[in-house]
Write a structure and sequence with these properties.
Number of strands: 0
Number of helices: 18
Radius of gyration: 21 Å
Shape: globular
Order of helices and strands: HHHHHHHHHHHHHHHHHH
Helix content: 55-70%
Amino acid sequence: MSAVVSAAHLLNPTGSVSKRGYLPAVWAVALLPYFILVCGDNSFTFQSAYFCLGLMVFAAFFSKERAAYSRHAIGLIVSYLIIMGIGNLVTLAIASEMITSRSLIRALMFLAIIWFFAHAISRRWSPREITFLLKSVALSTFASAFLELKTWVENGFYAGRVYPVSLTGHMIDANFFALLLVVQISCAFLLVVYSSNVRVKILYFILISFGLASVMLTGSRSGLLCIVLVIAFGYIAFVCSERTGKLSTTVLVFVLVAVALFLINRFMGDWMFNRFFKNSYNDGSNQFRVELWVKAVQRWMSRPLFGFGVGNYNYFSAEDWGVVETSTTTHGTITDFLVDFGLIGLLLFFSVLIRIFRGLLQGKGYTPLALCPGIVVCWLIVGAERTVALWLFLIIFYVLADYLSCNQEHSMKGLLSER
């Protein structure tokens, strides 16, 4: 991980902070998932979490806390700024019809997201702050479940797909909603397996159950598959790498399976059951998604290095979807990065993932590492490039990887012990 952050951990591995409260930067990240309640777009992007962006600005420029940006963080900000500039200038020069009044706004918003991420990963997180972050994100499962169950009740306990509706009246796409739930459930799972308090285990187990029920109601097959992957891989990693807590974790996993079977039998109608378990992934929606990916790669080859500029590919997306305008691009995160930022931008994104995986491996964080495939699969098949869920996942696991790799004498169990 970065030399700046590593040195900070070595000087003070506990990252001690005042126990009177948490700093604004911590709150800026911890509160992100709660803004699903007032989501104003169908994919829950940072446009619905301006408050957190503002709070991070306050933390960076007006609070007593000062973060020394790591070289990796500075590299991300500068590189994406250059890539966006080149991509948009080339598009303006040779295909000006793709540039709209929103092009500049989209570029500035993505730059704000990158800066938010860079500031979050550059600060020194203490064990207490990391635990608080995981707990806050896990508890936010109640917020997501509330929206889904509220909409389900308002629709008369509808037996088909139920797309959640925020408190501001905006419908949220099921797959984007499920992606956030997968991140929330992953945090709750870590707290279940590593907590030494039985009541705490039960609380987060209940949260996982609510999250699982919500994903089933949305009809998101990718969401359900990825929750199964998270719990299965996480359980195997925990049992193989930890000496204690195996029995209680095994019991809770079996109970969760029983809860899932009960939910399927009690609340899943025939149409929904067939969607999940019979026609599976062989239907028109998935075939159309693959077609979008193929078209995206074919068009990307005309701008291989820097892409078309962030958001400008919507010009082609509107044609593909047969509409005047759409917020959905290629329906895939990898292809979105390719068409928006080219191969260079995609490699920069991969550099973040590599640092996370390497840090968790070095720090022996095998259980959080085992959760990553399930989360990654979920955001691969949706256009999560500018969503809160994707960047929340990256921040949480980057912070975990950084702490564990810089403090290899500490373990996940010690990190998440009751404080």
